[in-house]
Design a protein that fits this description.
Blueprint (H helix, E strand, L loop, with lengths): L1 E2 L14 H10 L4 E3 L6 E3 L2 E6 L5 E6 L21 H10 L11 H4 L5 H6 L12 E5 L2 E5 L7 H4 L10 H7 L13 E7 L3 E6 L18 E5 L4 H9 L5 E3 L8 H6 L7 E16 L9 H10 L2 H7 L6 E2 L24 H10 L11 E6 L2 H18 L3 E6 L1 H9 L5 E7 L6 H4 L23 H10 L5 H18 L2 E14 L2 E2 L15 E2 L6
Parallel strand pairs: 1-11, 14-15, 14-16
Antiparallel strand pairs: 2-3, 4-5, 5-7, 6-7, 8-9, 9-10, 11-17, 12-16, 12-17, 13-17, 18-19
Length: 528
């Protein structure tokens, strides 16, 4: 298979890209996940769980008979049994202020004692965290600061995957290149963003409904070629079974075109992804600290034109909020981002002191150096010039430089996207919570530096509400506030494009952009 979306870091606590989880979820496992057949929450390393009536304490019974992959980080090179101590260590490590952790924001505002643990730079290998403990030989208890009815979904986040302490001790800075987990496949060979050879984990705990051991496949070769021509060549020889996101590269249409024949062994489909692409602003500094400027840009951009002119209708226009229209009972129709209106755009621009764009400071729209991003940026550049009289330049950077500049507040407007990590709107809205913005250092989550106490209160209130419909209504109020403040500008909601060979069976549409290959199998040419 080939995945056109590259990523920087595979190790779960350090990972911040959804594209990493496609590979990583075959190797690592969290306590819970989502059933690929019905999308419902399902047990993984936690065999079962309970929560108290106040939604502040969660008890997880850890599955027995689970082994880590064979790896030289263990004394005899043979993977040992997973224990609740491993869960305790991995989850506590997620509260560390450490180079091995970029996802502390998931827990620091939630788990009892996590803020102090992070601020005092305590370590899971040495220090106790009040909110995570062992209750018995097979049970881990997590205690929260305040009620969160959706906390269990947070533990489906890829970053919460469990790994052995020995891996961190053995590999140190090379940890990312030596993944060790409990998943259905183990890494036999891994060259980042080139290729990964996955082999079947013969001691995997999972079984199908007929008690047959999983996974069925002997292995998976996952490539990361950025060449549509190379992938098309493999398709011509029927050497590849699955292609993900061919539309991300300039010549990706070479593979897509092969699916158009009635006699092709390949078919193409689009899957609604939990992903929003949007314009990000530095909200607290520079020209975009003025809400009027942000509103002017929001009213100036024709989202439908972006889809028609650039995306060939492969996405849904961002006419609603930051939260994509993919959640049950979420009233996305009630959340409306400003529709294109040139008169309103010019009004707000004049209110900011830049009539028809006069004397607007030199500004560059920063993007990742990706084919699709360049096309989208050029369309935005064109629209902003035509409607506002503002000439934006475009700065295209490698991914790591792009995000580093944003985190260090060295850019004011950029093209951004967020892929859902778990099935709840808080995963999107928490990006803009005030508490996720450090005062005097780089910001990883709230890189927009947006601070609004009313928004914070709405998101926090929703976490306490057990009723799904009411909770979604409160989330939508927070989303509407973001649109009113123009904290970001939704552009479109993504669809994942997938090309699949007819011989590949046993996989459902991806959940959170990840395929479950545990029941996948290949049928012979004679059986087709």
């Amino acid at each position: 298979m080939n995945q056109f979306s590259p990523f920087d870091i595979l190790f779960p606590p350090m990972s911040y890209e959804g594209s990493a989880a496609q590979l990583g979820s075959q190797i690592y496992e969290p306590l819970v996940g989502y059933d690929s057949e019905n999308g419902k929450l399902a047990p993984l390393l936690a065999e079962s769980w309970e929560e108290n009536a106040e939604h502040t304490e969660f008890r997880f019974k850890i599955r027995q008979g689970v082994y880590f992959h064979n790896n030289r980080c263990f004394n005899d090179g043979k993977g040992r049994l997973l224990t609740p101590l491993d869960v305790l260590y991995a989850l506590t490590s997620l509260c560390e202020n450490s180079v091995y952790n970029k996802n502390a924001g998931l827990f620091t505002g939630q788990i009892l004692g996590a803020v102090e643990f992070f601020s005092k730079k305590k370590r899971a290998s040495e220090d106790h965290l009040e909110g995570i403990s062992l209750n018995s030989d097979d049970e881990v208890v997590v205690k929260l600061i305040k009620p969160n009815v959706e906390f269990i979904h947070l533990l489906a986040h890829y970053a919460t995957s469990i790994y052995p302490k020995e891996a961190k001790t053995t590999y140190g800075k090379e940890l990312d290149n030596n993944p060790v987990g409990t998943g259905p496949f183990y890494s036999k060979s891994y060259r980042k963003n080139e290729v990964c050879l996955l082999a079947r984990n013969d001691r995997y705990w999972g079984k199908d409904e007929n008690d047959k051991p999983l996974p069925f496949l002997d292995g998976i070769k996952m490539g990361f070629s950025s060449s549509g021509k190379t992938v098309r060549s493999a398709m011509d020889k029927e050497l590849i079974h699955l292609i993900i996101d061919p539309d991300l590269v300039e010549d990706g249409n070479l593979g897509v075109s092969m699916t158009e024949s009635d006699f092709s062994p390949y078919s193409k489909r689009q899957v609604l992804d939990l992903e929003t692409t949007f314009l990000g602003f530095l909200n607290d500094e520079g020209v975009f600290a003025d809400k009027n400027v942000r509103l002017a840009f929001s009213y100036a951009i024709d989202r439908t034109a972006v889809i028609n002119n650039v995306m060939a209708n492969r996405c849904t226009p961002g006419l609603h909020g930051l939260v994509p229209p993919a959640f049950t009972n979420y009233p996305f129709e009630e959340v409306k981002s400003p529709n294109v209106n040139v008169d309103s755009a010019l009004y707000y621009l004049e209110q900011a002191g830049f009539p028809k764009g006069a004397e607007f400071p030199v500004t560059s729209l920063q993007i990742q150096n990706r084919f699709k991003d360049v096309l989208v940026a050029q369309e935005i550049q064109k629209q902003v010039l035509e409607k506002l009289g503002i000439s934006l330049s475009i700065t295209a950077l490698p991914k790591d430089q792009h995000f580093k500049r944003i985190e260090d507040r060295k850019t004011q407007i950029w093209l951004d996207n967020w892929i859902g990590d778990f099935m709840d709107p808080q995963n999107f809205l928490s990006l803009l919570l005030s508490r996720n913005t450090p005062e005097n250092e780089s910001s990883f989550l709230n890189i927009y530096r947006f601070k609004n106490s009313q928004f914070d209160s709405l998101v926090d209130e929703a976490l306490k509400v057990a009723g799904l419909e009411k909770r979604m209504d409160i989330y939508s109020q927070a989303d509407r506030l973001l649109m009113k403040e123009a904290a970001i500008v939704p552009l479109y909601y993504e669809k994942m494009e997938v090309i699949q060979h007819v011989s590949l069976k046993g996989i459902n549409d991806p959940i959170l952009g990840r395929f479950d290959f545990r029941k996948a199998y290949i049928i012979s040419a004679e059986s087709l």
